[in-house]
Specification:
By secondary structure, the chain is an all-alpha fold. It has helices at about 15-40, 50-70, 75-95, 120-140, 160-165, 165-200, 205-240, 245-279.
């Protein structure tokens, strides 16, 4: 009986996974360097260099989180900043074209490592992180009341609500994957097209260095910034909309109890009226 699944060897792994690991390693090393430098910085001195840049990024992330998500999500800026930098570094890494020297016995050996988001598995992993945070926040706030959303307005809507639950995951996954893959295809066509032109004429030698920097600037830098902003903003909106402050939650419970009491009084009045009519 053949195996349904089997573990892939190191040389069989997608090149995009290698790119993701390298980007994550760069971010970890960068974080350690900043942490070590901050330990040796006098807080009374004006920050300089990478420490100053890190303070600007952290302050900006905390400010955006407070404005968009509210004060209840204080501390969430660290995740938002890490997510934003991972997406941006991933697009920049695809522009560098580092040769794949990590898989010596694969077909991708010495080929340029691609943007990690040209593989749908990478974007799906980020979308699932957002999905987990959204539902964790909803459960933390609503407790057992969280499960009522799947049978609203009626229990018959349970299958539809379960399908709808995954729509943000598909949206986040396919948006980032589609834009990264489209940029990769366009840049590849530029290189392949002008290299073919170069075989027959000298025009390719002149046009390729002129057009490729603009293509990289748009699809790897500008488009990377846009996709980073969209993904991070949607993540913050999806998570924050699940939060209900304790004051609002108490007010909702009071309104619900008041409505229930009014219905009971109306029912009692109808019952008295019916009894009076019988007499």
């Amino acid at each position: 009986m053949s195996k349904i699944t089997e573990l892939l060897g190191w040389n069989e792994l997608p090149a995009e996974l290698i790119s993701s690991l390298i980007v994550a390693t760069v971010m970890i090393v960068l974080a350690l360097v900043i942490f070590i430098k901050t330990r040796h910085v006098n807080p009374l001195d004006k920050p300089r260099g990478i420490v100053h840049l890190a303070e600007i990024c952290v302050s900006f992330a905390d400010k955006e989180v407070k404005e968009i998500m509210g004060p209840a999500f204080e501390g969430f800026g660290s995740y938002v900043l890490a997510l934003a930098l991972f997406i941006l570094f991933g697009f920049v890494f695809g522009m560098i074209g580092l040769p794949n020297i990590f898989q010596p016995y694969s077909d991708e050996f010495l080929q340029p490592l691609p943007n990690p988001f040209t593989n749908v598995a990478s974007t799906l992993a980020l979308a699932l992180c957002t999905f987990t945070l959204v539902h964790f926040t909803a459960i933390r706030v609503n407790h057992w009341g969280y499960f009522k959303r799947y049978v609203k307005p009626f229990a018959v809507f349970l299958p539809i609500n379960l399908v709808t639950m995954w729509s943000p995951v598909l949206s986040l996954t396919l948006r980032l994957f589609g834009n990264a893959l489209a940029g990769y295809f366009v840049i590849t066509l530029i290189y392949v097209g002008f290299s073919g032109l170069f075989d027959s004429t000298m025009a390719g030698l002149a046009f390729t260095p002129l057009l490729s920097p603009f293509a990289h600037l748009y699809f790897d830098i500008f488009d990377g910034l846009i996709q980073m902003t969209v993904f991070v903003m949607l993540t913050m909106l999806y998570v924050s909309q699940e939060y209900i402050s304790p004051e609002d939650l108490a007010a909702a419970k009071r309104d619900k109890a008041l409505l229930k009491e009014q219905k009971a009084q109306l029912k009692a009045q109808r019952h008295k009226k019916n009894e009076a009519l019988k007499i």
